[in-house]
Amino acid sequence: MAASTTSAAAQTPHHLVVGAGVFGVSTALHLLARGHAVTLLERSPDGRAAVDAASNDVNKIIRADYQDKHYAALAKRAISAWRTSPLYAPFYHEVGLLLHSGPRPPKDGRAYVQNGIARAHAEVLESDGAGVPFVETPAPGCELPPKARQLKSDADTDACFPPSLRDQLGAALRDMGGSQSAYVNPRAGWAEAGNATHAALREAVRLGARVEGSAVVTSLLREGGIVVGVRAEDGREWRTQQGGKVVICAGAWAHDLLRRLGAPAPHPCTPSAQSVILLQLDDEQRAAFRSAPVVLNFSTGFYIFEPDEHGVLKCVGAAH
Fold first, then answer.
1. Signal sequence span per UniProt (predicted)?
2. 251-303, pLDDT tens digit by residue?
3. What is the pLDDT of residues 146-197, one digit of tens each?
4. 230's torsion region: left (phi>0), alpha (psi -120 to 50) or beta?
5. Which CATH superfamily is domain 2-54+195-260 in?
6. Weakest mean pLDDT among 1-10, 236-245, 271-280
7. Taking burial as the number of CB atoms within 10 A of a residue's CB, which of 127, 148, 311, 316 is the most buried?
């Protein structure tokens, strides 16, 4: 038995995943589920997503009403996992998402709203390619929230918010159906990005992944023109085994990393940034905002979340 186990291990592909953020850890989990071996290389000292990585954030919007139908389909399947997975469900808050144009909507504002609602309602197929319709799964013991709908009045808008906020919404969230175009998608919300990513990394380690911290990759190792490993700036080297691959999951740093490695970055692999404001609310304010939907102005890119468990409310400005 020992000899058989050793032989099987020697034939197992061993992959190197550069980056332990959401894409890197997700890649590792899928490879581990298929019986492959994985080493995660992360530039942070502790091997978790770096403090300045997008994955290591207070929260991120979770939605499936994107304008791109393929991304929307992927997101709709993912949301069912967010609701039901013991690993991810503790970090998902399905409070809904309200999208509005602002008082000076773009020319295609109404079309954006109609397309978003259509994407939220569109049938999605299972990912196995068999053409079987995907069935959304509610959280255990719950029913699915209502589907996305257009907002046509102030009363429609008020109904999206807890009573404690309805008389404080202000002009920015008024005149829906008039000067503004808007819709709400109750089957959306936000995730505790950093907490979920760290939990996924712990699960990858439990399943056998190795994690190497302070691994700032600076060059590729090649044999016969084939990439077989990487070298870090401190001189350490890691190599794939048994046909394993080097997978770059460096997020916003992918563009610069690929250029440094001599591999052209695919278009449009260009990083962007957003201005973030974090506000510490007191207990009374935190209670008033609890369960408020994420609000996104699709004209300006400004969006705002309900406060997290520590009372921190996050606002985000337009990308630049």
1. none
2. 888 888 888 887 776 766 777 888 899 999 999 999 999 999 999 999 999 99
3. 999 999 999 999 999 999 999 999 999 999 999 999 999 999 999 999 999 9
4. beta
5. FAD/NAD(P)-binding domain (3.50.50.60)
6. 1-10
7. 148
Task: Please report, for the chain, the start and end positions of each structural domain, with discontinuous segments joined by +.
Answer: 2-54+195-260, 94-189+272-319
- Model confidence, pTM: 0.90
Beta-carbon neighbour count of residue 75 at 10 Å?
19
- Report the 10 Å Cβ neighbour count for 69: 13
CA 260 – CA 257 distance, rounded (Å): 5
Going by CATH, does the domain composed of 94-189+272-319 fall within 3.40.50.150? no
Angle value at C-alpha 60, between 291 and 170, nearest 5 degrees: 50
Nearest Cα to 208, choosing from 15, 11, 3, 49? 15
Does residue 320 surpass a pLDDT of 60? Answer: no
* Tens digit of each residue's pLDDT (9 = 90 or more) over 87-142: 999 999 999 999 999 988 788 889 999 999 999 999 998 887 788 999 999 999 99
Euclidean distance between CA atoms 82 and 288, whole angstroms = 26
Read off the amino acid at residue 230. Answer: V
The position carrying tokens 């046909």 is 243
